[in-house]
Amino acid sequence: MIHIVIPVFNRKHFTKACLESLQRQTDQSFKVIIVDDGSTDGTADMLKEEFPEVEVLFGDGNLFWTASVNMGIKHALASGTDYVMTMNNDVDVAPDFIENTYKWARQKPNAVIGALEMDADTREPIFGGEIIDFKLNKVRHLLQELPKEKQVGIHRVSQLPGRGLLIPRAVFEKVGLFDQERFPHYVADYDFTHTAARGGFELYCNYDAKLYTYPEESGERKNRISKSLNNFYKHLFDIKGGGNLRDFTRFTLKNCPKPYVPYYLVNGYARRIFGYIVK
C-alpha cells in the first residue's frame, strides 16, 4: 500500500484538482494524507465535504514543506504503510500514474523512484531526473540526453525532487525522515535522496509515471518575473527563496565530497547571485 502525503497551504483549487486526478486512477490501491498547515481559504471545509476518504492532519501555519511532509510520513508509517509518496498539491497525475508506479516498485522494491514531470499546459515533458557532478559543479538533465524512443521505463539518477517521489518504508527505517532542521522548505527533497543513496538505496526516475505541473505558478518563477531589490533579497535569503544561500551552503557541506566543497560553494554562490540578474 502507498500512502501519498500532500502538504497544503491555501490554493484549494490546486488541491481539489490534484485529488480529483487521484480519484481517476486506474489503480486505487493507495491512501491520501493531506497536511493542512493553517490554510485560511476554506481548504479544510472543501476536503471534509468533497473528499471524505482523505485523512487530514493540521499544522499551526509554521511547518513549511519539510515539517509538514514529516508529519504525514510519521502518520503513514504508524499506519503500517509499505511505501510513502510525497506530492505537492499543485500537480495533476495521469490516470495510470499509480498503476505505473506499482509496476516498477515491484521490480525495484527497495529503490527510491521519482516521476516524469510534464508541463500541464503544453503536455510536454520538462523534467526526468538529474545526474550531478560535484567535481565540475554541473547537473546533467537526463531528459535532454535521452532520445524520444528511450523516454520510457526507469532510468538511474543521482538526485530527485519531492513531486511524486516514492519512498520504501525501509529507507526511513535506515536513514530517518527529511532533514527539517537544516532544510525547512526547499532542498530537503534533494538532500533526502542523496542521503538515501549514501544509505545504499538506488534512485530512479520512472518515465511511465507522468505528473503534470504548472511551472509559472512557482514562487521562484514569479519572483524572477517581477524583479526588484526586495525580490533579489528574498531569492537569496528568504526561507522560500529558490536561490537561498543558507540552504545551498548546508546542502553542499552535507552532501558534496570534501575535496570539491570550496569550488562547489564559490561556483554555486556566483550562479545564484548573478543568475538572478541575467535570467
Question: What does this 3D model show about the protein?
Answer:
With 279 residues, the protein is an alpha/beta fold. It has two domains: 2-217, Alpha-Beta Complex (Spore Coat Polysaccharide Biosynthesis Protein SpsA, Chain A); 220-278, no CATH class. The protein has eleven helices and twelve strands. It has helices spanning 12-23, 43-50, 64-78, 97-107, 142-145, 169-175, 188-198, 219-225, 229-237, 245-255, 261-278; strands at 2-8, 30-36, 55-58, 83-86, 91-93, 112-119, 125-127, 130-133, 138-141, 154-156, 165-168, 203-213. The strands form three sheets. It has a five-stranded mixed sheet with strand order 3-2-1-4-11, sandwiched between helices. Strands 5, 6, 7, 10 and 12 form a five-stranded mixed sheet that branches. A two-stranded antiparallel ribbon has the order 8-9. A hairpin with a 5-residue loop joins β6 and β7 (125-127). The chain is globular and about 50 Å long. The relative contact order is 0.14. This is Glycosyltransferase family 2 protein. Residues 4-121 form the Glycosyltransferase 2-like domain. GO terms for molecular function: transferase activity. Pfam families: Glycos_transf_2 (PF00535). InterPro entries: Glyco_trans_2-like (IPR001173), Nucleotide-diphossugar_trans (IPR029044).
Describe the structure concisely.
InterPro entries: Glyco_trans_2-like, Nucleotide-diphossugar_trans. With 279 residues, the protein is an alpha/beta fold.
Strands, helices and their partners?
Elements: E1 2-8, H1 12-23, E2 30-36, H2 43-50, E3 55-58, H3 64-78, E4 83-86, E5 91-93, H4 97-107, E6 112-119, E7 125-127, E8 130-133, E9 138-141, H5 142-145, E10 154-156, E11 165-168, H6 169-175, H7 188-198, E12 203-213, H8 219-225, H9 229-237, H10 245-255, H11 261-278
Parallel strand pairs: 1-2, 1-4, 2-3, 6-12
Antiparallel strand pairs: 4-11, 5-12, 6-7, 8-9, 10-12
Helix pairs in contact: 10-11
